[in-house]
Amino acid sequence: MSPKAKARPGGRSARVQEAVHAAVRELEAEQGRAKLTVPAVAARAGVTPSTIYRRWGDLHELLSDVAVERLRPEEPPSDHGALRADLTAWARQFLDEMASPPGRAYIRDALLGDPDGSNAGQCSAYAAGQVETILARALDRGETAPPADTVMDLVVAPMMYRILFRPDPLTAEYADHLVDTALAAPDESA
Amino acid sequence: MSPKAKARPGGRSARVQEAVHAAVRELEAEQGRAKLTVPAVAARAGVTPSTIYRRWGDLHELLSDVAVERLRPEEPPSDHGALRADLTAWARQFLDEMASPPGRAYIRDALLGDPDGSNAGQCSAYAAGQVETILARALDRGETAPPADTVMDLVVAPMMYRILFRPDPLTAEYADHLVDTALAAPDESA
DNA sequence: AGGCGGAACGCAATGACGTTGCTTTAAGGT
DNA sequence: ACCTTAAAGCAACGTCATTGCGTTCCGCCT
C-alpha cells in the first residue's frame, strides 16, 4: 500500500512528510532529475536517509508519491453552461498540462514507482472524478450525457496513450476531435 | 538515442548484446525482478559490469531494451476472412498478452528506461503495424475500414490506459466492445 | 590478404548509495 | 501525567554505480 496512508497522521510525521516532499520539488526545480537522489533529498529536508527508505522504500516510490500529489486537480472543472463546452475546455486543459514536459515527467514517475498500481489508479480516479462532475452537471441541466467510462475510453485514454507512447506533439484540435467522437457515440452502458 | 542502434553491429558486440539480453531473461525467470542487478546480469553473461554501464547507461535502459524486444510481434495477425473477425481476434490476443502480469511488467519497463521516448514509440509502432496490416487486408477485400489512427484511439489506447492506470481485470468482452465502437465510428480522417 | 584506426571490452579503484539493527524521541490514548 | 508504540535518528556494513587506463578485436582501406 501507499506510504501516504499514514497510521499516525499528525505532528512530526506530517512535518517530515511535508519537508521531504518540498525537498523533492525544490531539488527537482533547481538541479533537475539527474541530481535527485535519496541522500540529497534527505539532506535538503533535514532528515536522515534511512527515514526516507523506511517510509517510501526507494526513490521511485517517493517520486511517484510526489507526482500523484502534483497531478491532483486543484479545482473542479469550470462551468461553461453546456456539456460540450465543459468537456472541450476540460480536455484541452488536461491535454495541455499532461503533454507538457513536466506533465509527462509526473505521469512517468507516478507509473514508475508503483508496485501495486495504487498510485496510477489514483491518477485515473482524479480524471474520472473531474469527468463525472462535468457529466453530472449536464444531467442536472437535462442534457443527455454518455457514461463516464465512455468518456474515459474515448477522450482520456487516447490522450494518455499518445502522451506516453508517441513523441509527436498534440494539439487542442485533437482534444476537440476526441470530444466530438465521445458525444457522437451512442449512450451504451457496457 | 537507443543503444540498440549499434555503430558496430557484427562480431563481438553482437555476441555481448545477445549474451546480456539472454542473461536478463534467464535471471528474471529464475529469481524474479528483485534479484535483477547489473552486476548479476554481467556475471551471468560473462561480462564485466562496466561494459553494461557503458552500452546501456543503467539497469532501466537495459530492461527497456529487453522489454521492447519482447513486445515485438512475432507474426502478422491471423486472417479470419473479415475485418471485424480479424480486429476482434487481434484485440483479444493483444489485451490478453498485455494485461497479463508479465505483459504489464514489460510495458512498464519499456516506458521506464526511455529518456527520449523512442522505445515507447517503437511499441506503439509495433501495434500500429499490426493494425495497418489488418486494415489493408480489409481494403483489399473491398471492405470499408476506418483509418489506422481511429483504431489506435478507439481500441488500442483504451486497453493500454486501463492496463496502466486501473487495477481492474480486463475481459475479452471489453475488447469486443471496443472493436464494435471503432467499426461503428464514421470514417473520418482527422 | 594484410595492416591500420578506432571503438568496445576487461580490469581495478573509488566514492556514493541502499540497507539494517539498535537507540532515542514524541504522538495519542488511558 | 504516564505508558505504549510507531516513527525518526544514528552508525556501520555491503553492494552498486562510475571512471581512467590498458588491451582486444571489429571493420575498412589499400
Automatic annotation (TrEMBL), chains A, B:
Residue intervals of the HTH tetR-type domain: 14-74
A Pfam match: TetR_N
SUPFAM superfamilies for the chain: Homeodomain-like, Tetracyclin repressor-like, C-terminal domain
InterPro entries to which the protein is assigned, alphabetical: Homeodomain-like_sf, HTH-type_TetR-like_transc_reg, HTH_TetR, Tet_transcr_reg_TetR-rel_C_sf, TetR_C
RNA-binding found in the keyword field: no
Domain of life of the source: Bacteria
A GO MF label: transcription cis-regulatory region binding
DNA-binding region: 37-56
Record keywords, A-Z: DNA-binding, Transcription, Transcription regulation
Protein name: TetR/AcrR family transcriptional regulator
